[in-house]
TrEMBL record, chains A, B:
Chain's role: Serine hydrolase involved in the detoxification of formaldehyde.
Family per similarity comment: Belongs to the esterase D family.
Any one Gene Ontology cellular component term annotated for this protein: cytosol
Enzyme class: hydrolase
Annotated transmembrane regions: none
Protein name, per record: S-formylglutathione hydrolase
Key words, A-Z: Hydrolase, Serine esterase
GO biological process: formaldehyde catabolic process
Top-level taxon of the source organism: Bacteria
Species whose genome carries this gene: Streptococcus troglodytae
Listed NCBIfam families: fghA_ester_D
InterPro entries linked to this entry: AB_hydrolase_fold, Esterase-like, S-formylglutathione_hydrol
GO MF annotations, alphabetized: carboxylic ester hydrolase activity; S-formylglutathione hydrolase activity
Enzyme Commission designation: 3.1.2.12
Amino acid sequence: MEQLSKNKIFDGWHERYSHQSRTTNTEMTFAIYLPPQAADKKVPVLYFLSGLTCTDENFSTKAGAQQYAAKYGLALVIPDTSPRGKNAADDESYDLGQGAGFYLNATQNPWSQHYRMYDYIVEELPELIEANFPVTNQRSLFGHSMGGHGALQIGLKNPDCYAAISAFAPIVNPSNVPWGKKAFSAYLGKDEKTWAAYDSSKLVSQMKKAQPILIDQGLADNFYPEQLQPEVFVQAAEANGIDVILDLHEGYDHSYYFIASFVEKHIAFHAHYLGLRKEV
Amino acid sequence: MEQLSKNKIFDGWHERYSHQSRTTNTEMTFAIYLPPQAADKKVPVLYFLSGLTCTDENFSTKAGAQQYAAKYGLALVIPDTSPRGKNAADDESYDLGQGAGFYLNATQNPWSQHYRMYDYIVEELPELIEANFPVTNQRSLFGHSMGGHGALQIGLKNPDCYAAISAFAPIVNPSNVPWGKKAFSAYLGKDEKTWAAYDSSKLVSQMKKAQPILIDQGLADNFYPEQLQPEVFVQAAEANGIDVILDLHEGYDHSYYFIASFVEKHIAFHAHYLGLRKEV
């Protein structure tokens, strides 16, 4: 691991690293915020998965999350959204290829060689984090848009690994919306049966149990409801006896201004299920 | 005025506008955050002056200030740092020309035609804001780095116009540090006597009265103490019987991570002198 930068914020440290990933077979970058409590003891980790076009830096600089991580005493880990660099395949559009990994393991050429973000997020990155930083193996998971899709489908398939799941404006049924159909066709192929393993609305209808789940959606979001259909997820969950908190917000859009407005609520939600209390 | 964007954040509205400025004789851009209280009544305005290379967007997206503006019920106005565009002169370096207006009225060619940021900030912009938005004529002023210099020298010269002054890592004695010497030589000419009107440490030693003044400085700031010498300002102020709060912070650098960590403190400071109380 190579440290790229280190900045003090809210009495903790926001650090960026790059490392050679065995999973994606590329160099990968991530950010970690270590709250002040981590100077004295191990703290749980809340992973944030970002949306299309983002790197780790969007959430790190725009969400205002560090102050709440500091108040509750949890670390934030913010991965990149795809493999990068000239070795990894790419596409000219913003919603496929670099910056658009969709948190899955691609099976199709030219993507399958490097686009293995599911395994990277679920296996390699937590191992790296837990081996190198003052953190416990308690994990929780949230994300935005494509990263909300990542948080939901990863969390649902790994109920014992993540204390809770939450999402801002998530893609919940990628098999049935334009972003998901384009990405899944490319990464997973035309056989839609293979898509179900990464479709949160299908997964939640089959799970015997799930963690607490929270979703916030802005009603002035340009992508709602064409790409973002949280009601579909909630209906599938409720039909299977799984409870979901869905809050809709008049006037809020898809931007980080929306995320910033509700990030305290999400961090408090995860902190509760990680057994943490706000330290005033 | 043309509205460029409008985003809901913390129950208020963050809006960007461009307008043709009679002062700079260019198009100018600014952002305004109207807190939820502005829907019902006029609110005071806190102006933020940004540092070298910034536009209005750095503070707007990275400082996390809107939540505190909403808590206290004040509007934020964030101007650009210089005239822009092909009509305005420029320089290849980051610390002169576009993005580096230094909040003064240039007297030298090629700058004097458009670089009149002092008059823009003190006269034209407040007139525009007070004529077009639900705000009172109560003003307060803060800034970062070059914008800290702007806040101090503008505030000191206009004690009846701004309730308080505060700064993150300000340039306080531009006549004696590299950034200031370069900019003042270009904008104001080689005669250093003309520089004193924009040198906060000289101004504060001559003022009969001053508003409450707060300065925060990170001790891990790469530009401290070569470019940033808050102690010089405090000594000049104290020798003249003017009180300054100067807080130094171990580990903090020059970035917006530093600003975000202390922005609540600054907004609370201005709110107090604007007669506002936090609305929980």
